[in-house]
Input
Amino acid sequence: MLHDRVLVRQDNGDGERRSGGGILIPATAAVGKRLAWAEVVAVGHNVRSVEVGDRVLFDPEDRAEVEVQGVAYVLMRERDLHAVAAERLEGTDDSTGLYL
Output
């Protein structure tokens, strides 16, 4: 990866899902603009706040998809990320592990 680029593998959210209250939402239900979670698989040398293995929140409408060896990935700049969920930082005193 070059410069400030981040390569992520998007979570598969194609099937049915449940709301926080336990209501089953079918895959065909229309939803408004929604951000998506993905796992970071590679970062460029200028990326400072994200490491491989972190989960990031991004806007799926602003993405560039690429296929590598039959696996679909999303390529974006670090500045296009909305939040980082990093398990490596959850053990600190006042940390939740989620950074917006």
Strands lie at 5-10, 17-18, 24-25, 36-43, 55-58, 64-68, 71-77, 81-85, 98-99. The longest strand covers residues 36-43. The radius of gyration is 15 Å. Residues 65 and 80 are 14 Å apart (CA to CA).
